[in-house]
Design a protein that fits this description.
Helix content: 10-25%
Oligomer: single chain
Number of helices: 7
Strand content: 35-45%
Largest sheet: 11 strands, mixed
Number of strands: 28
Structural class: alpha+beta
Distance between the termini: 52 Å
C-alpha cells in the first residue's frame, strides 16, 4: 500500500501524557531554539541551537548533573564580527551549607535544581550557533524483511527515537548515528581543590657529609642544529595562533571554540539516494541518506521532524531490495534443547545499504504471511546476516566425529635429525533427514577446531574466522536423507625415527617432489640405499634371533628329556635319538650365532655409513601443506 511521503517518514508511536510541566535538561530562555538533533547509541545526543540575539550575553539553564557535559562539549560559532568572551556559571561552596546564620531563601531555579551558564558576548547583535552534548535515550532500529523465491528480498529499516529532553523538538533536522563513540560524564561544574604539601622553614642543618660526583672530561658536544625555517604559510598560521592566544589572555576570556563544532557536518557529503523497494514512498528522496565516514554510519532524515517531549517517533530510514532468502540453519543452542537435533528456519540477507545496520529486531514475511521474528546483530556493510526465527521439526540432524592421522611430509633435516609433518584429521559427518514434501536448503553451523584448516570444503562454505565457526551448505531432497562431511586438518610437527615407516614415506615423497632441492634429493637417495640395506639386514638379524631363541628352547627341552631317561636301560634307542638331535641342534645353533655376529658387524658398519650420509644434509621446508 502506497502512503504519502510524510506519513512514511514520521510515524508517531505514542505520547507520554504528563500532568505537570517537566523541567528541560537544557533550555534557552533567550530564544535559541533547537534546530538539529543527532542521536547516538551510547546514551547521549548532540543538540544544536541557533538564532539571532540583540544583547551582550546569552543564558542557558540546565540541571546540575548536566553542567559538566555542557561545558565539556560546548562549541559556539558567532557568524558576525564579534566573539564570545567567556562562559560563566555559579559555584556552590562549603559556606552555602553553614547553618550558623539564618537560612537563605532559595531561588525558584535552586528549588528546581537548575544552574545557569552565561555566555558573555562582545557586542550587541549576534547570529549564534551553539552545540553541546546531553544525555538522551538511545535510538533503536527495527527491521522488516520480505523474502521471495528468486533469491531477492525487500528490506525496510526504521528508527525509533525517544524525546525525554523536557522540551519539544519542532521541525528539527534529525540524524541517527549507528555507533557508540566514547562519551563520559564530566564533572567540570564541581570545584576541586587538590591537597598541597606543607613546607616549613627549620634552618639548614646538614646532618651528614654528602658524597661528591665526578665527571670525566669528554669530547665537546657538537653544536645544536639550526631549525629549518617554516614555510611562509605555516609561519603566518603559527603567528596568527600566537596572536590569538595573547589577545584572548589580555581580554581575560576563554579562546573561542573552533568553528568545526558541527559534528553532523563532519561526517561528509550525503550518500546516493536509496532505490525504491518494499512499500516505496512516492518520492524516494524522502528516505534517509546514508553516509559513512570515520567508521561511523549516519542516517540523515531529509525532511524536518517534530518530536514532542515525552513521546517516541518512528522514522523510515531505508527501503530497498537486498539479496536474501529463507532457508534452514542447524546451529545447536543451549537455550533451545531441541535445536540439538532440529534446524532453525532462518532469514538470510546481505547488507548492501552502504553502512552499518545496528542490532535490532526483524520481522520476516513470505508470500504475504508473517513467518516470525528474530534479532539482527550489528551488521557491517557487505556482510550477510543469518537470522533464526523458528524451529523446524520436520528435519532431523545427527552428527558423528572420527579422528585420524594422514600424510607425512619432510619438515626439517638438520644435524642428522629428521622432523616430519602429519595431518591430524577430524571428519565430522552430518546425517540430515528431510521429512517434508519440499527440498530443503540447509546451512550447518560447524564449530571450527582451533588451528585447523578446512579440507575439501563444499562450494559456498563460509569460514567465519571471527566467530570460530563455518557455515557449510547442503541440499536434501523431499523425504530423503543426505550426508554432509566436514574435513578439518591441523598440521603437527614431530621428530621421527629414520627407520620408521612414516619416515620412509616422507623421504620418498620428498625425493619424488618436483619442488625438492635436487642436490639434497640425490644425497637422500644415496643415504636411503644404505638405509634400505640396514632395514633389510636388521629384519634378517631379527629373524635369525627368533630362530636361535626357538632352537635354544628346544635344546633345553631335549636336555631335560635326556636327564629324565638317564638311568632307564630300556630307553637306549630313545637316548641315542635325543642325543643325535641335540648334536644337530648345537651345530645349527652355532651356525645361527655365527651369522648373527656377522650381521651385527655389517649393521654397525652400515649404521656409521648412514649417519655420515645424513649428517651434512640440511633441509627446511617452508611450503604450506597440500590443499584440497
Amino acid at each position: 500500500m502506497r502512503t504519502h511521503a510524510s506519513a512514511l517518514l514520521v510515524v508517531l508511536v505514542g505520547s507520554l501524557v504528563i500532568g505537570c510541566t517537566r523541567q528541560a535538561i537544557v533550555s534557552s530562555p533567550d530564544g535559541l531554539p533547537v534546530q538539529r538533533v543527532i542521536v547516538y547509541r551510547n546514551g547521549v545526543a548532540y543538540f544544536e541551537r541557533a538564532g539571532h540575539v540583540d544583547r551582550d550575553e546569552v543564558r542557558f539553564k540546565m540541571k546540575q548533573s548536566e553542567v559538566g557535559d555542557f561545558l565539556a562539549t560546548l562549541a559556539v560559532m558567532e557568524r558576525g564580527n564579534s566573539s564570545v568572551r567567556s562562559a560563566a556559571f555559579p559555584l556552590k561552596s562549603a559556606d552555602d551549607d553553614d547553618d550558623s546564620g539564618p537560612p537563605r531563601e532559595k531561588t525558584p531555579d535552586e528549588k528546581k535544581g537548575l544552574e545557569t551558564v552565561v555566555l558573555a558576548l562582545d557586542g550587541k547583535s549576534h547570529d549564534l550557533q551553539v552545540g553541546y552534548v546531553a544525555e538522551s535515550p538511545v535510538w533503536r532500529p527495527s527491521y522488516r524483511l520480505v523474502v521471495r523465491a528468486d533469491g531477492e528480498a525487500d528490506l525496510q529499516a526504521w528508527g525509533i527515537v525517544q524525546n525525554l529532553s523536557g522540551e519539544d523538538w519542532k521541525n528539527v533536522r534529525l540524524s541517527l548515528i549507528a555507533g557508540a563513540p566514547l562519551a563520559f560524564q564530566a564533572d567540570l561544574g564541581t570545584p576541586v581543590i587538590p591537597p598541597r604539601p606543607v613546607v616549613t622553614d627549620e634552618g639548614e642543618v646538614i646532618a651528614a657529609v654528602p658524597h661528591a660526583e665526578t665527571s670525566l672530561q669528554q669530547e665537546a658536544s657538537p653544536p645544536a642544529p639550526v631549525a629549518a625555517p617554516l614555510p611562509s604559510g605555516a609561519q603566518s598560521s603559527k603567528a596568527s595562533a600566537l596572536r590569538g592566544a595573547r589577545e584572548a589572555k589580555k581580554a581575560g576570556s576563554a579562546a573561542p571554540a573552533a568553528p568545526a563544532f558541527d559534528q553532523a557536518e563532519a561526517f561528509g557529503a550525503l550518500a546516493s539516494t536509496p532505490a525504491p523497494a518494499l512499500s516505496p514512498p512516492r518520492n524516494v528522496r524522502s528516505l534517509a541518506a546514508v553516509a559513512v565516514e570515520g567508521g561511523a554510519t549516519r542516517y540523515d532524515l531529509p525532511l524536518p521532524v517534530t518530536v514532542p517531549d515525552g513521546s517516541a517517533t518512528m522514522v523510515l530510514l531505508l527501503s530497498r531490495p537486498v539479496p536474501g532468502e529463507a532457508l534452514f540453519l542447524f546451529a545447536p543452542d543451549g537455550g533451545v534443547p531441541d535445536s540439538a537435533s532440529h534446524p532453525f528456519r532462518v532469514a538470510r540477507f546481505t547488507n548492501n545499504v552502504g553502512g552499518v545496520l545496528e542490532r535490532g529486531p526483524i520481522a520476516v514475511f513470505e508470500d504475504g504471511a508473517f513467518l516470525g521474528q528474530g534479532m539482527v546483530d550489528p551488521l557491517p556493510a557487505g556482510a550477510t546476516a543469518t537470522v533464526p526465527f523458528a524451529l523446524e521439526r520436520s528435519i532431523a540432524v545427527e552428527r558423528e566425529r572420527k579422528l585420524d592421522e594422514q600424510g607425512e611430509r619432510v619438515a626439517k633435516i638438520e644435524n642428522g635429525e629428521l622432523t616430519i609433518e602429519r595431518d591430524l584429521v577430524t571428519q565430522t559427518t552430518y546425517r540430515v533427514k528431510n521429512g517434508a514434501d519440499a527440498q530443503a536448503k540447509l546451512l550447518v553451523k560447524h564449530p571450527r577446531i582451533a588451528g585447523a584448516r578446512l579440507f575439501g570444503a563444499p562450494p559456498g562454505t563460509e569460514d567465519n574466522v571471527g566467530t570460530g565457526t563455518a557455515l557449510v551448505p547442503t541440499k536434501v531432497l523431499a523425504r530423503a536423507t543426505a550426508e554432509l562431511m566436514v574435513d578439518e586438518r591441523a598440521t603437527e610437527r614431530r621428530p621421527a625415527d629414520w627407520f620408521s615407516t612414516i619416515a620412509d614415506g616422507a623421504i620418498k615423497a620428498y625425493i619424488a617432489s618436483a619442488k625438492a632441492d635436487r642436490s639434497v634429493a640425490q644425497k637422500l637417495t644415496s643415504a636411503w640405499t644404505v638405509r634400505d640395506d640396514l632395514v633389510k639386514k636388521t629384519d634378517e638379524k631379527r629373524k635369525l634371533e627368533r630362530e636361535s631363541s626357538a632352537l635354544t628352547t628346544a635344546t633345553e627341552e631335549t636336555r631335560r628329556n635326556l636327564r629324565a631317561i638317564e638311568k632307564n636301560r630300556t630307553a637306549d634307542a630313545l637316548r641315542q635319538k635325543l642325543t643325535a638331535r641335540l648334536a644337530d641342534a648345537a651345530s645349527h645353533l652355532d651356525d645361527l650365532n655365527r651369522r648373527i655376529v656377522e650381521l651385527e658387524s655389517k649393521l654397525a658398519e652400515l649404521a656409521v655409513q648412514f649417519r655420515e650420509a645424513v649428517r651434512d644434509i640440511k633441509v627446511t621446508v617452508t611450503t604450506p601443506p597440500p590443499a584440497a
